[in-house]
């Protein structure tokens, strides 16, 4: 499960846990992120001038991922979501379930993260399975 994700807590509604799975210096960075029930991260963008993006693979529980302009996608173990570089999105646990995913940060150039506004309670409460 990892340690409390205190370094990024300001970008989450609720509590999350983080464990790096890949070895430091590996070209592909992989983290296991675990969300307590109801926890979600803010809208955010993974920028890259070339390549980049993120792949999420649900490994436990039930969660959600939403790309801007699309309906939220329910995630169950084995489900995969690809988030292209430059696309605003968020992900997190369902209201009544813990949720863990592997987050693969794809190699790229000029990469940075831009953290944006929280997912509102109204947006989140409107989700249905």
Can you describe this structure?
With 129 residues, the protein is mainly beta. It has a single domain (3-125), classed as Jelly Rolls (Sandwich), CATH 2.60.120. It has one helix at 121-125; strands at residues 3-4, 12-13, 16-20, 29-35, 40-41, 44-47, 50-51, 54-61, 63-67, 73-75, 80-83, 89-93, 99-105, 108-109, 112-115.
Summed up:
The protein has one helix at 121-125; strands at 3-4, 12-13, 16-20, 29-35, 40-41, 44-47, 50-51, 54-61, 63-67, 73-75, 80-83, 89-93, 99-105, 108-109, 112-115. With 129 residues, it is mostly beta strands.
Q: In terms of topology, how is this protein built?
A:
Blueprint lengths: L2 E2 L7 E2 L2 E5 L8 E7 L4 E2 L2 E4 L2 E2 L2 E8 L1 E5 L5 E3 L4 E4 L5 E5 L5 E7 L2 E2 L2 E4 L5 H5 L4
Antiparallel strand pairs: 1-3, 2-5, 3-4, 4-13, 6-15, 7-14, 8-11, 8-13, 9-10, 9-12
Summary keywords:
15 strands, 48% strand, mainly beta, 3-stranded antiparallel beta sheet, globular, 129 residues, single chain, Jelly Rolls
Instruction: Note the beta-strand portion.
Output: over 45%
Q: How much helix is in the residues?
A: under 10%
Class by SSE composition: mainly beta
Distance between the termini: 25 Å
The CATH superfamily name is Jelly Rolls
Low-confidence stretches: none
